[in-house]
């Protein structure tokens, strides 16, 4: 015969163990890289449309990319970061620009 009190206590312990094992998903930084061919206004457009930056924020990031070689666009979970990178790269290719977008573990 099953001891219900024992079963309930065991389930409580299992639930606590599972809660203790849960972790925040890994985060990834998404960067745009500088090149000598992509127009600055196209980079600003990408930052506004794909990363929801204001015109002012996008301009600041674009200048960082221009002067420092790369600029942080945002930090996301792996799946979202991968999707943003793929979408930006495809958009750049569709518009005949060599703009590169990469992700790095945060």
UniProtKB/TrEMBL annotation:
Among PANTHER family, the record links this protein to: ATP-DEPENDENT CLP PROTEASE ADAPTER PROTEIN CLPS, ATP-DEPENDENT CLP PROTEASE ADAPTER PROTEIN CLPS1, CHLOROPLASTIC
For molecular function, the Gene Ontology terms on record are:
peptidase activity
- Record organism: Colwellia echini
Q: What is this protein's function per UniProt?
A: Involved in the modulation of the specificity of the ClpAP-mediated ATP-dependent protein degradation.
HAMAP family the record matches: ClpS (MF_00302)
Pfam families xref list = ClpS
Which family is it part of?
Belongs to the ClpS family.
Q: Would I find Transmembrane helix among this entry's keywords? A: no
Spell out the InterPro entries in the cross-references: ClpS, ClpS_core, Ribosomal_bL12_C/ClpS-like
Biological processes, Gene Ontology terms: proteolysis
Domain Adaptor protein ClpS core stretches = 23-101
State what protein this is by name: ATP-dependent Clp protease adapter protein ClpS
This protein's record includes keyword 4Fe-4S: no
């Amino acid at each position: 015969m099953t001891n219900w009190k024992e079963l309930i206590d065991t389930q409580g312990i299992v639930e606590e163990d599972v809660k203790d094992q849960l972790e925040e998903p890994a985060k990834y930084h998404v960067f745009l890289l500088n090149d000598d061919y992509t127009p600055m206004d196209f980079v600003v457009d990408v930052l506004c449309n794909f990363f929801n930056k204001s015109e002012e924020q996008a301009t600041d990031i674009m200048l960082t990319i221009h002067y420092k070689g790369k600029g942080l666009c945002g930090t996301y979970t792996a799946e979202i970061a991968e999707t943003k990178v793929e979408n930006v790269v495809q958009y750049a290719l569709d518009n005949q620009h060599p703009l590169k977008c990469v992700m790095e573990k945060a």
